[in-house]
Structures
1.
Amino acid sequence: MSKFNRREFFQVSTIGGLALSLPLNLKAGGPKNKKEKLDPYFSSVGRFSHSFLRKIANKYGSPTYIYDWDLIKTRYLEFSDGFKKHYPKVKVHYAYKANTNLNIVSYLTSLGAGAECISIGEMSFALKAGQTGKNIIFTSNSKSEEELGFAIKNNILINIDSLSGLENLEKVLKKVKSKSRVCFRINPDVETSSTHKHISTGHKFTKFGLMYLNGDIYKAAKRAIENNLISFEGIHSHIGSQILESKPFEKNANILCSIALEIKRKFGHEISFINMGGGLGIPYRDNQARFSPERLASIVCPIIKKSFSKFKNLPEVWLEPGRYLVAEAGVLLSRVNSVKMTDITNFINVDTGFNHLARPIMYEAYHRVRILNGKSKTKKFQVAGNICETGDMLTKDRLLPKPEVGDILALLDSGAYGFTMASEYNSFYLPAEVAIKGKSDYLIRKREDFDDLLRNQKIQKSLI
Ligand SMILES: Cc1ncc(COP(=O)(O)O)c(C=O)c1O
């Protein structure tokens, strides 16, 4: 044991908000012999060895996203069980925007998750993954008539974002002579200091939600209650993403509860759920502490229980985690194309870039990086993508071993907002996706080729 780092042999599990160390069950990705080191930071359970990941990269090519199936399950159960310990009626809706591979969304459906969707595409993925409309939420600040029609037809819950959006829905309902289930997204004016400004969604200057401050939420609630084509079921707020502090969640819970109580006082209407949104962050950095779902539950659930003690029924608590369920399960494997050492800085040039992992350029996001060559750290390097833009840097200065051309470089925690944000910019092909479950690896999306780039283009001879 002395040769190995303690974390290589212990899986961190969170029970009751406390991080516990459990013996790690070494599976497919485990070391073949004791001399080969497991990288303790591959994911928070350190399941894959370098040689295993090299094998996967050689088998499927590069760049390739891989997903640890067992970790997706662990994170889902951590979320739903963590909340169920603190509240009797809980529903977890997976936020599809984090990753829509059909295998992932179908797996989460089988584990019991519902779906939070933003577009007809995402709603269609949810239906294909075995969801019924009853378990799908359609949330968007800008819904077209076509999208509303699709949601109505499939009995999907429509999350209304503005008074104008409510009017549009009323018109469509009249036109199609149908009813619809509705909830309201609220802008609670809650600031989040721990997250990037582009993913802070709950303060008053964002485009999201009916304002709590100016009372728009009550105007909307009154209209919905008076409209017999609308069944007004609940309220919602999503205050941002990658949040690792308790105060904003606590403030949001208090505001949602006070709104629900005011709706009951003003109109005598009792809602059946409070949707707290997603947003729980993950530890992207080596020394960042985990904020467990159970800790979140221990903060928000007592607020809801206390507020609703005089209601006939306690409302259900709904959650919409995306990142927390899939981010840590994902690793983007790429290959080193060249290594450029200069007097000013050192670059590792890889065969992927912001076209496949946009988070660094979009949110200045930090992803841990490992070079799978078994050497120890030597120099500061920047990992540069292959896109023809100066901004295409996947990391700033990092202490890394000097790679050889052809070495595999792994970008960790890339399972959420990785592939779903990928594009075909510079006409690079979208990467393959591979699932690792138990001892087996499965191709769950083949790498694109030139035919995929051409797929929807039409050659018009008269233009050429
Ligand atoms: C309405 C809504 N719900 C849930 C989520 C999921 O957030 P996260 O992945 O941070 O949990 C998002 C993300 O942007 C969102 O916009």
2.
Amino acid sequence: MLTLTCPHCGIRAEETELSPGGEAHLKRYGPGDSDEQFEAYMFARKNPKGVHFERWRHAYGCGKWFLAARCTATLEVFGTYPAQVSAPPEPIIEAIRARRPGWEAGQ
Ligand SMILES: [Zn+2]
């Protein structure tokens, strides 16, 4: 079972206490952008076997949104962090690189 630590309240929560919110760090497109950019924003999502950044909400706890970096193949969690950032914090990137040598952001 997937277990994530909420960065807001510090509680280690099981997957059943959380609500998934999809891929994290999406670049939003809207009026004025091309149809292809808007289509990609609306419908195209990564579905990697490996490192993935995701949005989660501590639904049966504090109720706040946060982001998590984890491996979709092994459920290994590299870290969680507040949702008010546009890119993964450096300690999260370092934790991923320490356990997945050769991994590069954007894979
Ligand atoms: Zn919480």
